[in-house]
Design a protein that fits this description.
about 40% helix; 7 strands; Rossmann fold; alpha/beta; globular; 7 helices
Length: about 240
């Protein structure tokens, strides 16, 4: 069965990220109609404009159910796919974690996606889907990454459960490894050193690019017989 993304309406939550930008651009190439959603509407609108003149922007805060419900109301005519690449970091030793950062991380990766499913699933067209993002940390936990490992692992469990409950609406997960995005600029002292170390250790012998993640997301969105799955886009990082 073939499935085209042409003319499909796709909402990208967390639209300010490098991965969202790459995916939005590739979706446009496929002929999809793309809307970026983010907590800061002004920044989201700038990100949308940078991708293309036809990309729209809307406000959506995963920590605010009213915001999610209001965003869903703007899509009363329905959408085909909802993708959430949103994340909030709460890294550090377990003894130093703050409750506010913990809650923000779970809002982005767990509670928010559940509320997205609650309010948007009734709007998803036949053969449409929800696509969430996990990450390598769930399968390769490291000291200081307890929250990241827990939230990312929860995403995969959530998708499997939602795929059963929301059937036939599909629900899947992309789990990237180390990807060359600007997110590393403020999280590690020397990202190029990190990239060299990772490239030397993973079976793919390189770090990932946003285009790698986007290609995987497009494949999952376009395959109507994949649901409840987590696709790892980590260059074999789980095995290194």
């Amino acid at each position: 069965m073939t499935y085209s993304l042409k003319d499909k309406a796709v909402l990208l939550v967390g639209g300010g990220s490098d991965i969202a930008a790459a995916l939005a651009a590739d979706l446009l190439e496929e002929g999809a109609r793309v809307t970026l959603a983010g907590r800061d509407l002004e920044k989201t609108a700038i990100a949308a404009k940078a991708v293309g003149d036809t990309v729209e922007a809307t406000a959506l805060d995963l920590a605010d159910e009213g915001s999610i419900q209001a965003a869903a109301g703007r899509f009363a005519d329905g959408i085909d796919h909802l993708v959430s690449v949103a994340a909030a970091r709460a890294n550090g030793p377990i003894g130093s974690l703050e409750r506010g950062a913990l809650l923000a991380a779970f809002d982005a990766k767990v509670v928010g996606p559940i509320l997205l499913a609650e309010h948007f699933a009734p709007l998803i067209a036949e053969s449409g889907s929800l696509l969430f993002f996990s990450g390598l940390a769930a399968w390769r936990p490291a000291p200081g990454g307890v929250v990241m490992a827990t939230t990312n692992g929860s995403v995969s469990t959530l998708a499997a459960a939602l795929a059963v409950e929301l059937a036939p609406t599909r629900v899947n997960v992309i789990a990237p490894g180390v990807i060359t995005t600007s997110a590393w600029d403020t999280t590690v002292p020397d990202k190029q050193q990190l990239f060299r170390r990772v490239a030397a250790s993973v079976p793919a012998r390189r770090v990932g690019e946003p285009s790698d993640v986007s290609a995987a997301a497009l494949a999952v969105l376009a395959n109507p017989f994949i649901t409840g799955e987590t696709l790892h886009v980590d260059g074999g990082g789980r095995w290194a």
